[in-house]
């Protein structure tokens, strides 16, 4: 069993939660995590760049001047790639960089990433994280107190707008509902922080993590 520390917003340890590695796949699947990172990063690429080839450039197809007898180098039409304003010889074109990553593999990769954070001691549960109004300074102070201000993923059960507004201007903090957390988010962050209800929902059913089943 792995112990996940439970701390309050003042940085004091108030308890711990047990995490059974068996429900998250028993071991860290490094090969699956590699596939997840490659897939997520590939899907971030737009692939919309495009330049014109000689057939796309506007201009006449007339030969500029005769082939021989002028003393100049031979030349074709104005759209040739060797002339200024002509088309590119090997132009860039739109591409689809996306890679398919099945849902079952996405879930296994997420669980493996969470298990890796738990084993490395960079996962924790924070209690009492409630804000009556948006308070960025209070949230930033809490992160410094917990020594997790250098890069944190905060997984919550529901979308608390006061919490979202408090942390959206903190560049080193990412906040997501636990149902939307993926392997890339977990691996990119230095620390993984759960609210108590989010951790309970994840441990209860790692497949859905609190997501309502579709009829």
Instruction: Tell me what portion of residues adopts beta-strand conformation.
Output: 5-15%
Helix content: 25-40%
Largest sheet: 6 strands, mixed
Radius of gyration: 27 Å
Number of strands: 6
CATH class of the largest domain: Alpha Beta
Global geometry: elongated
| Number of discrete helical segments | 6
Stated plainly, the CATH topology of the largest domain is called Ribosomal Protein L4, Chain: A
Strand order of the largest sheet: 2-1-3-6-4-5
CATH superfamily of the largest domain: Ribosomal protein L4/L1
Give the number of domains.
2
Unreliable segments of 5+ consecutive residues: none
Distance from N terminus to C terminus (CA atoms, Å) equals 35 Å
Mean pLDDT, rounded to whole units?
88
**What is the helix/strand order?**
EEHHEHEHEHEH
* Backbone structural class: alpha/beta
């Amino acid at each position: 069993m792995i112990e996940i520390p439970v701390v309050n917003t003042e940085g004091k340890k108030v308890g711990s939660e047990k995490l059974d590695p068996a429900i998250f796949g028993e071991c860290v699947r490094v090969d699956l995590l590699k596939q997840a990172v490659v897939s997520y990063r590939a899907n971030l690429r737009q692939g919309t760049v495009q330049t014109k080839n000689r057939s796309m450039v506007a201009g006449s197809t007339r030969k500029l001047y005769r082939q021989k007898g002028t003393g100049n180098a031979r030349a074709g039409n104005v759209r040739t790639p060797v002339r200024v304003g002509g088309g590119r010889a090997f132009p860039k074109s739109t591409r689809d960089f996306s890679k398919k990553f099945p849902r079952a593999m996405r879930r296994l990769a997420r669980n493996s990433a969470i298990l890796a954070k738990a084993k490395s001691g960079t996962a924790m549960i924070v209690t009492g994280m409630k804000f009556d109004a948006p308070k960025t300074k209070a949230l930033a102070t809490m992160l410094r107190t917990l020594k997790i201000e250098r890069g944190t993923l905060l997984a919550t059960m529901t979308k608390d707008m006061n919490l979202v507004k408090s942390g959206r201007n903190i560049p080193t903090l990412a906040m997501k509902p636990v149902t939307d957390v993926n392997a890339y988010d977990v691996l990119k962050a230095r620390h993984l922080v759960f609210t108590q209800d989010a951790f309970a929902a994840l441990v209860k059913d790692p497949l859905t993590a609190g997501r309502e089943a579709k009829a």
